[in-house]
Amino acid sequence: MRYIDSTLLRLPDGWTDRAKTAKEAILRGEDPNDYSDVWRALKNNLAELSHDKCWYCEIPVIRSDNAVDHFRPKGRVSDSANKHDGYRWLAFEPSNFRYACTFCNSRRKDPEGNTVGGKADRFPLENEADRVYQPGSVKNEIPTLLDPCDIGDWLLLGVQKENGKPCAASNDPEQKKRANVSIEIYHLQHEPTCKLRHLEAVKLLSDIEEAKELFIAIQSDATKKTAFKRVAARLLKAIHANSAFSGDMRFILRGERETNHYSWIQTLLET
Ligand SMILES: [Zn+2]
Predict the structure, then answer these.
(1) pLDDT exceeds 80 at position 113
(2) Which helix (H) or strand (E) is 256 found in, with range?
(3) Would 22 disulfide with which of 35, 192, 211, 256, CB 3.0-4.6 Å?
(4) At residue 233, does pLDDT exceed 90?
């Protein structure tokens, strides 16, 4: 996961009027899905904000019919204490849209790794008593799911460098719980995704080792500087927002900085 600044979303000409008309129809009792072309019209603009990657897991979304996820479900909510028909009044609200791959968005079972996940109609809250059922403000609801549009949430997810499996980045019990629930609901532990994440981690760790050795070598041999810069550029690319799993790679690099206190790692993270 990586922070997405959704305020940068570009709305096509006339879109706001279409959304307003659709919302009025929904509030009269019509089905949001009859107006799905309205949110689908924003698919490419949402993808633009994340360099075509899923906002939850950061894998490139090649093809998906269902790429616009409603963070607060527009249909029923399975986590609510009472029957919830969905946050229908937010069905056309751009701040409720997340660009998502099929694995994160749709419920499925993966026999290879024996995992189950996918967001579908899930939306647990930290305090169920705050749940809003009728059109109105949701500002008092605290979602349990980590939100890529929240400036701090993505930092709560980490990765195990040995196998590419996701983990909580924090030891704080509340933050840890939110990370673990998100891992399950977004299906971030999906085995094929872990393998891809692990491949990136292996490349990153190899580059970190090479950079460490070159950094030491530079102290007595200035000609090693070029080679060091070449590796540093690769590391920078791996943690750049347009690379797959860039949030996970930043997590690994942050961990290396903390154990070794290398100033050059700090510089890369700040670049
Ligand atoms: Zn995804």
Answers:
(1) no
(2) helix 246-260
(3) 35
(4) yes
Domain that residue 178 falls in: 6-189
104 Cα: distance to centroid of ligand 1 (angstroms): 4
- Interval between CA 31 and ligand 1 midpoint (Å): 26
**Residue 219 located in a structural domain:** yes
How far apart are the CA of 29 and the centre of ligand 1, in A? 32
What pLDDT is stored for residue 143 in this prediction? 98
Taking only the tens place, the pLDDT of each residue in 12-52 is 999 999 999 999 999 999 999 999 999 999 999 999 999 99
- Quote the CA–CA distance of 131 and 139 in Å, as a whole number: 10
- Scanning the structure block, which residue is given the tokens 């660009």? 99
Backbone angles phi, psi at 3, to 5 degrees: -60, 130
Q: According to the model, what pLDDT value does residue 154 have?
A: 97
What is the C-alpha separation between 262 and 217, in angstroms, rounded?
14
Q: Locate tokens 């890369």: which residue? A: 268
Where is the domain boundary, 189, 218, 239? 189
**How far is the centre of ligand 1, averaged over its atoms, from the C-alpha of 129 (Å)?**
29
Give 127 Cα–ligand 1 centroid separation in angstroms.
26
Ligand 1 mean position to 108 CA, how many Å?
Answer: 13
83 and 155 in a single domain? The answer is yes
Say how many Å lie between the CA of residue 178 and the centre of ligand 1: 17
**Rounded-to-integer distance, Cα 267 and Cα 271, Å:** 6
How many domains does the structure of the chain reveal?
2
Cα 101 to ligand 1 centre (Å): 4
| Cα 17 to averaged position of ligand 1 atoms, centre (Å) | 30
Measured in Å, residue 126 CA sits from the centre of ligand 1 at 23
